[in-house]
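Thread: "does anyone have the structure for this chain?"

Original post by V.I.:
We have the sequence but no experimental structure in hand. Need at least a predicted one for the grant figures.
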Amino acid sequence: MIGRRLEGRVAVITGGAAGIGRATAERFLAEGAQVMIGDLNEAKGVALIERLTDEGHGGNVAFSRVDVSQEPDVVRLIDAATDRFGGLDIMFNNAGFGGAIGPITEMSVDHWDETFAVLVRSVFIGIKHSARAMIRQGGGGAIINTASIAGLAGGVPPMPYAASKTAVVGITKHAAVELAEHRIRVNAVCPGIIFTDLMHLGRPDEADAVRKVIQPWPDRGEPEHIASAVAYLASDDSIFVNGEAHVVDGGYLANGLLAVHPLFGGSRRPTHVGITRGTTGQRNDVQRLPPEASPR
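Reply from O.Q.:
Generated one for you, tokens below.
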């Protein structure tokens, strides 16, 4: 049964219009928070707000389009939350996409930079400006960053995504130390195989078949499972938890099979190169590699 641990608190969620972000927005609202949702995909964001308003949450939720890789956009998002709801207590830096794919010998530097801008620079910017708002108002706060099990072990492709999530874990730990004196806790959540549109790439049955081989827990991971972990990290139930990479993966890492059974969509011999932009509403840029360009 869901309680009201977040009653009266104000939260900002980036990448909040779909998947884990959407499930977390719903969970935060159920726990009594007021929520500012940010997302690059304006159509999805507006549709979500309309649904949540119809469900009776209209006074406690709002949406603002944001490109999390751009500092002025993130500042506007946080300002919108403090102006609308009177403060900021929780920041969930969740926005992301699949990013650059392909062999390192063929990968575009521009795609690499775009991946790190969306997955790493955005976390830095989000921490920077949410911490400023929390320090100004006093009383501390909770910052949660979406990392991944890909940031905790080798062999989980694609490499730029894994490298960026490793960086998120490092940023989380350093920021946790620096901001502790202000009673601001900084933690990361590290999902395993979670069934979102971004994860299964429109092939949920194929993804589920792979999941059953590598994940010990019999149930598949859903966005709501991550939302529950984020709600815990946002609440006073985790008041002494700081600088942690909180794994929620159904035992995937414990299984120790990363090198044998890579995550769905990965391959030791990439067949495509480019960048995937997930549910942002922007087009992917992916080309099939000629056979001679695929490393063996």
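V.I.: this helps a lot. DSSP finds nine helices and ten strands in the chain.
O.Q.: and The chain has a mean pLDDT of 89.
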